[in-house]
């Protein structure tokens, strides 16, 4: 077991405010994505993609790397062996992460075959042992992201039992996807959409266990939805809607966190900043598309949004991608917007 319990000296570690967070999304919320999202919101808690203990312990790559500008940032960990989980939690703390989160919600076959993810809903004692082992090695929060049940589990009694056992193991923070996961018969994508949402069950958990921090996940798509949810729970986790329409984060700091002093970054400023970020990359295998793919939705609902997406998709990939991809795409968007403004001005003058 590692004996590391020292935080990275270069890390700036603001207090975690759980009112709003961005969900861990496999293949999506990588370090480039999180750097971009942090430009839009200074206070939202960001989560990594799920990383398995096996990848961290035995993998050849650096699965714990992140930009220090991402804080506050949490590592989501996949695993079920308490010793391995504790070892990886200690490594995460030594690298400067603000939190380690245990994945008890992913329904994919790969995760299930590895004995972690949503199948652990049926093994609360295992999750509790992991929590205890991890907390012995770290000072940062150890949290759990789960569902309200799997397959034929009862959404009331069995879910309450899961929470009670894991909470008794030392966990005081749960992020609950307010749907069951059906491990038999539904794909991971269907498991995000088909099982009905049961918000009242999560509200009931908060009422029954007010000492626990409870965040809700699933189906929340707007700032207004978030504000409504915060009347019943401590925090809201939003996932794919943020990815599809990332600029909604620009209003989170003021509308959710009450920070009216920080001026939100404009789309144009975000593009310029991310172009500079691209130009600083030194990895020989890096391509502008590794960043641009996370920005496809930046102009969602705006004039020129389709032009933006098309330019990035057509010029960001291939053997010779445009090195000035973002700025050239922005120029195309602004040219289209200018044409629309001129056309509207002519219509009004007639």
UniProtKB/TrEMBL annotation:
Residue numbers binding FMN: 24-26, 76, 145, 177, 217-219, 239-240
The record's annotation in InterPro entries points to:
Aldolase_TIM (IPR013785), DUS-like_FMN-bd (IPR035587), DusA (IPR004653), tRNA_hU_synthase_CS (IPR018517)
What keywords sit in the KW lines?
Flavoprotein, FMN, NADP, Oxidoreductase, RNA-binding, tRNA processing, tRNA-binding
Q: Which residues form the DUS-like FMN-binding domain?
A: 22-325
UniProt GO MF annotations: flavin adenine dinucleotide binding; FMN binding; tRNA binding; tRNA-dihydrouridine20 synthase activity
Task: Give a single Pfam family match.
Answer: Dus
Domain of life per record: Bacteria
What the entry lists under PROSITE patterns is as follows:
UPF0034
**SUPFAM superfamilies from the UniProt entry:** FMN-linked oxidoreductases
Membership in a protein family: Belongs to the Dus family. DusA subfamily.
Q: What is this protein called?
A: tRNA-dihydrouridine(20/20a) synthase
Originating organism: Alteromonas profundi
């Amino acid at each position: 077991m590692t004996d590391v319990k020292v935080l990275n000296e270069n890390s700036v570690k603001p207090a975690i405010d759980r009112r709003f967070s961005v969900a861990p999304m496999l293949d999506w919320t990588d370090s480039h994505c999180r750097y971009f999202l942090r430009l839009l919101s200074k206070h939202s808690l960001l989560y990594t993609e799920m990383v398995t203990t096996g990848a961290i312990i035995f993998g050849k790559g650096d699965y714990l790397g992140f930009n220090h500008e991402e804080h506050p940032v949490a590592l989501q960990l996949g695993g079920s062996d308490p010793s391995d989980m504790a070892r990886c939690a200690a490594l995460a703390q030594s690298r400067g992460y603000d939190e380690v989160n245990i994945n008890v919600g992913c329904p994919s076959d790969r995760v299930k075959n590895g004995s972690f993810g949503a199948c652990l809903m049926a093994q609360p004692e295992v999750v509790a042992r992991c929590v205890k082992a991890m907390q012995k090695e770290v000072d940062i929060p150890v949290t759990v992201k789960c569902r309200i049940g799997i397959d034929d589990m009862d959404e009331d009694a069995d879910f309450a039992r899961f929470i009670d056992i894991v909470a008794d193991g030392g966990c005081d923070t749960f992020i609950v996807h307010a749907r069951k996961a059906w491990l038999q018969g539904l794909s991971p994508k269907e498991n995000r959409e088909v099982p009905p949402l049961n918000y009242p069950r999560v509200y009931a958990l908060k009422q029954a266990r007010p000492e626990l921090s409870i965040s809700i996940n699933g189906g929340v798509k707007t700032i207004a939805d978030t504000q409504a949810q915060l009347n019943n729970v401590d925090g809201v986790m939003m996932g794919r809607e943020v990815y599809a329409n990332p600029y909604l984060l620009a209003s989170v700091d003021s509308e959710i966190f009450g920070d009216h002093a920080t001026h939100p970054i404009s789309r144009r400023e975000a593009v310029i900043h991310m172009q500079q970020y691209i130009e600083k990359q030194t990895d020989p295998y890096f391509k502008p598309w590794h960043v641009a793919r996370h920005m496809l939705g930046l102009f969602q609902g705006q004039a020129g949004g389709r032009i933006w997406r098309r330019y990035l998709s057509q010029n960001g990939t291939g053997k010779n991608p445009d090195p000035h991809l973002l700025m050239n795409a922005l120029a195309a968007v602004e040219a289209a917007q200018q044409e629309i403004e001129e056309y509207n001005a002519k219509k009004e003058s007639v």
